[in-house]
Amino acid sequence: MRANRILQRGAFTPEEFARLQKTFDTSWAAVSHTVDVADRTRRRETLATIVLSLATARTDMDPQEMSNIAIRLFGIVDEVA
pLDDT band at 73, cuts 50/70/90? Predict the structure, then answer.
């Protein structure tokens, strides 16, 4: 699972992890209705990987900004896949 590998590499404080959880939850709430029930586990992992990748690349984003970007990237990945 790619998201787990990112978590293992990154050293997130409890506050940062809470921010990432909020970002993931907000993003998933926005896109979950577009995901087939049979594909939810894989698509949640895709979104988690996107959120974690953003967090390691840009630590200065607030949760809403990060969520907006994650949602857009999730849509792009979905189109490409």
Answer: very high
Q: What confidence score (pLDDT) does residue 58 get?
A: 75
User: What CA–CA distance (Å, rounded) separates 47 from 35?
Assistant: 11
Q: Residue 49 belongs to what domain range? A: 15-28+38-80
Determine contact, residues 51/7, Cβ cutoff 8 Å: no
User: Region 59-69: what's the mean pLDDT?
Assistant: 87
Helix (H) or strand (E) holding 60: none
**How many structural domains are present in the chain?**
1
CA distance linking residue 20 with residue 22, whole number of Å: 5
Contact (Cβ atoms closer than 8 angstroms) between residue 65 and residue 73:
no
